[in-house]
Design a protein that fits this description.
- With 190 residues, the protein is of the alpha+beta class.
- It contains 5 helices and 8 strands.
- Helix 1 runs antiparallel to helix 2.
- The chain is globular and about 60 Å long.
- A 5-stranded antiparallel β-sheet has the order 1-2-3-4-5, covered by helices on one side. Strands 6-8-7 form a 3-stranded antiparallel β-sheet.
């Protein structure tokens, strides 16, 4: 691995997941509470998904986020054959609030735009109440593009709104942000 980032004296590296690391993935996903992620993480289901290539195939690539030698997070890039990739980002509780989310989002954005020159945009979604991730999106140049009401069921019962963000290649290259035209509907008539 090569050190990608240093944040507050912490070396941050990204290492591609290998299917022979299924045990480590099971430990990572089942050993933490993931309050803003849908779905229950069960060992058998995770192992089946690893065997099916869900974490590493033509359409998906997964990377460990390693902070000072510890697996502090996971970045799963999805829909790589679709033209508009999405991602899942998880940071262990003890590493949250230390800048790793922003480091991971900046890294995955650069990685996707550099490795896939045909991509013109990258999308990500989070629950409306995940204020930390929403701030990370904005800080990293992503723009809110969607708000889906009652679209994110949680395991403990409530249904939350889902909020979508994206970054355009042209904005990433120029370091600017362009906002959607939210007022494009015609005025009510009759």
């Amino acid at each position: 691995m090569v050190v990608f980032w240093t944040i507050g004296g912490v070396n941050v590296e990204f290492s591609r997941f290998s299917p022979d690391e299924a045990d480590a993935l099971v430990d990572f996903l089942t050993g933490e509470e993931w309050p803003f992620h849908a779905g229950v993480q069960e060992e058998e289901a995770i192992r089946r998904r690893v065997a099916d290539g869900v974490y590493d195939d033509d359409d998906n690539r997964t990377f460990w986020l390693v902070a000072d030698g510890e697996r502090a997070g996971l970045v799963r890039l999805q829909d790589l054959t679709d033209g508009t990739p999405m991602f899942d980002l998880r940071i262990r509780a003890k590493w949250r609030g230390r800048g790793l989310g922003a480091a991971a989002l900046k890294w995955l954005t650069a990685y996707l735009f550099e490795q896939f020159p045909e991509f013109t945009r990258i999308e990500g979604n989070t629950r409306q109440d995940n204020r930390a991730m929403r701030a990370v999106f904005r800080r990293c140049g992503y723009v809110k593009e969607s708000h889906y009401r009652d679209a994110w069921p949680s395991p403990d019962g409530p249904v939350y709104d889902s909020v979508g963000y994206a970054i355009l290649r042209r904005d990433w290259v120029s370091g600017t942000t362009t906002l959607p035209d939210w007022d494009d509907e015609p005025a009510n008539v009759g």
